[in-house]
Amino acid sequence: xxxxxxxxxxxxxxxxxxxxxxxxxxxxxxxxxxxxxxxxxxxxxxxxxxxxxxxxxxxxxxxxxxxxxx
Length: 70
Known about the structure:
By secondary structure, the protein is of the alpha/beta class. It is built from three helices and three strands, in the order αβαβαβ. A three-stranded parallel sheet has the order 1-2-3, with helices on one face. Helix 2 packs parallel to helix 3.
């Protein structure tokens, strides 16, 4: 696992958009991490309320991240 984290930390910035399916905390954390590297992060959820399944502080952070699109 430590090796995987090191590989992820060394990712080069990409022109490729990334899509994450899910609206829970894990998806929010992934969106924040990947937004540092990907050209855009598309976060796809099944409903229209990000706050329903994600903690408020994390949903606020995701919504303030320019490269993340809901």
